[in-house]
TrEMBL record:
InterPro entries: AMP-bd_C, AMP-bd_C_sf, AMP-binding_CS, AMP-dep_synth/lig_dom, ANL_N_sf, ATP-dep_AMP-bd_enzyme. The lineage of its organism: Bacteria, Bacillati, Actinomycetota, Actinomycetes, Mycobacteriales. Residues 474-550 form the AMP-binding enzyme C-terminal domain. It comes from Gordonia desulfuricans. Coiled coil: none annotated. This is AMP-binding protein. Residues 32-422 form the AMP-dependent synthetase/ligase domain. It holds the Pfam family AMP-binding_C.
Length: 566
């Protein structure tokens, strides 16, 4: 067995080669958390606390309210919400009535949200109050029957809610940001839940049912709806618990990552009830707010993306961070310098891992021990296999070279691998083969010990703050801008090189003035999320192409970096 899985020799203390994946739904995890840790604080939102018993009660009432609105097992219910107590409760309420959660980025445009609602067939949307009117517009021509308003200001402590009512400019500005415009005759989620009778939670359906739909481009192209089953998610949470050695009822998890992102979803919505942890939720990443929470309720586990850790250290000042036993970094490369700085300050571990939405999302991680290797993606999780195939011919499995290194596209197989793309059997078949191997689209070097190092991305994704930006999506929109004859979008390193920003290289139509970066950004904001809007602009006479006329994005990137080398 060790010959097949050489990475087992590097596992942390007590981590098994395989974990027993329970045949459970996510609702079962919450029911068990109530029985085991009912009085433990489940969610802390700026000091307003909700115990596991209270969270289950909210979820039960919410499930009843959704049922009264006609939501049936198997229906899709969309959440367009920032991180908040209401988001956590709504997530569990949807699952408790046997429906499927669809997570959306609440900053997406009306057009993007419309496309996603069409794809999923969602029948109800639970929406941040200040976007209700946008969602009603997005829902036109879809299966959506109800758009329900969720006022996250109601989740704040009473003192903060009172401060929002003060007749001063600052309070009015903050109130508008939180609550937004008039919602018309939309139902109010809090009132619906309050009016529902108490309902004991019960897990409806099977572990093989779809629990969650999250949008991802996979490894390329336009976003696709990845379907994740209860078993996928419970398996990945169980693997993560074993990997980090979590106990029950004692950990405090900081929810800085957005819950609509696969990384944040796993560590903030699924893992906490499994281990009875307290989730400290933040509506957005605000280092000052995180440090204030550290003084109030110290963290023991902090998942994040690389830039967050540097910014937290800068903001900490004299505030001790030594309560943080372990932090996980994913979604983008982690600088060894940041890891060293964090571990010196906390005395804990900063562990880099690897995954994708299609893996629920984690497949590899560095050991939570002295065996971790900075700069490596890590080794496979328990119950997880990997192989390396030729990046040009996936039918050929790569053999080790003279140094024992396998170079090629990384493939993953395990219980966390997703069920497929909703309504796209061909795209699913291109990503997961008949034997269950997920083709990640990432080129890696895997050494003789099983440690993987990222070499390149087959499909040229751009990583901005941990989010995927798909060049073809940005190009498709900006190509419609008057005066733009052709365009290539690439990622350019930012800061220490672990993060990227978007460069638009354009060719202008003849006898047309070149647009400015400000004009490009304004046009982009009509349809693109903020992180995908170009931050750099290069005007070229033409774009480099190959023999069949395909734009060579890598050449565009290399040329730009050469021209602008300091």
């Amino acid at each position: 067995m060790m010959q097949d899985r050489p990475w087992l020799a590097s596992y942390g203390p007590g981590v098994p080669a395989d974990v027993s994946v329970p045949d459970k739904r996510i609702t079962d995890l919450l029911i068990e958390a109530v029985a085991r840790d009912g009085d433990v604080i489940a969610v802390d939102f700026f000091g307003a606390t909700t115990s596991y018993t209270e969270l289950a009660a909210l979820a039960g009432r919410g499930a009843h309210a959704l049922g009264k609105l006609g939501v049936q097992p198997g229906d899709a219910v969309s959440l367009v919400l920032p991180n908040s107590t209401s988001h956590v409760a709504a997530f569990h309420a949807v699952l408790a009535c046997g429906a499927t959660v669809v997570e959306h980025n609440p900053t997406y445009t009306v057009a993007e949200l419309h496309d996603q609602l069409v794809t999923t067939g969602s029948v109800v949307v639970l929406c941040w109050r200040n976007r209700v009117l946008d969602l009603r517009e997005a829902a036109i021509g879809t299966a959506v029957r109800e758009v329900i308003s969720v006022d996250v200001a109601d989740d704040l402590p009473w003192t903060a809610r009172l401060a929002l009512r003060l007749p001063v400019a600052a309070a009015r500005t903050k109130r508008r940001a939180l609550t937004g415009a008039d919602t018309g005759d939309a139902h109010d989620w809090r009132r619906l839940v309050a009016a529902a009778p108490p309902q004991p939670l019960s897990a409806v359906g099977q572990s093989s049912d779809t629990a969650l739909i999250m949008f991802t481009g996979g490894t390329t192209g336009f976003p696709k709806a990845a379907t994740l089953t209860h078993r996928n998610l419970v398996a990945n949470a169980t693997q993560g618990r074993a990997w980090a050695g979590f106990g029950t009822g004692s950990d405090v998890v900081y929810g800085m990552l957005p819950f609509f992102h696969a990384f944040g979803m796993m560590f903030c919505l699924v893992l906490p009830p499994l281990i009875g942890a307290t989730l400290v939720a933040f509506p957005n990443f605000d280092p000052a707010a995180v440090i204030a929470a550290q003084r109030r309720r110290p963290a023991s586990f902090v998942p994040g993306v690389a830039p967050m850790f540097d910014r937290l250290l800068d903001a900490a000042g004299d505030t001790a961070l030594t309560s943080i036993r372990v932090a996980f970094s994913g979604a983008m490369p982690l600088s060894p310098a940041v890891a060293e700085r964090w571990e010196r300050a906390t005395g804990g571990l900063l562990i880099e891992g690897y995954g994708m939405t299609e893996c629920s999302p984690i497949a590899l991680g560095n050991p939570c021990s002295e065996r971790r290797r900075r700069g490596a993606l890590g080794i496979p999780f328990p119950n997880t296999e990997i192989k390396v195939v030729d990046a040009e011919d996936r039918t050929v499995e790569v053999t080790p070279d003279a140094d024992g290194v396998r170079h090629g596209e990384l493939c993953v197989r395990g219980p966390q691998v997703f069920a497929g793309y909703l309504g796209q059997p061909e795209a699913t078949a291109e990503t997961v083969d008949a034997e269950g191997w997920l083709y990640t689209g990432d080129v890696v070097d895997v050494d003789r010990d099983g440690f993987a190092v990222l070499v390149d991305r087959v499909k040229e994704l751009i990583l901005v703050g941990g989010f995927n930006v798909f060049p073809s999506v940005v190009e498709s929109h900006l190509r419609q801008m008057p005066g733009v004859a052709d365009i290539a979008v690439v990622g350019i390193p930012r800061g220490d090189g672990t993060d990227e920003e978007v460069l638009a290289a354009i060719v202008v139509e003849e006898n047309t003035p070149a647009p400015t970066l400000a004009e490009i950004r304004e046009f982009g904001s009509q349809r693109l999320p903020g992180y995908a809007i170009p931050r750099r602009l290069e005007v070229l006479d033409d774009l480099p192409v190959n023999m069949i006329g395909k734009t060579l994005r890598r050449s565009v990137r290399a040329t730009y970096l050469e021209r602008h080398r300091a």
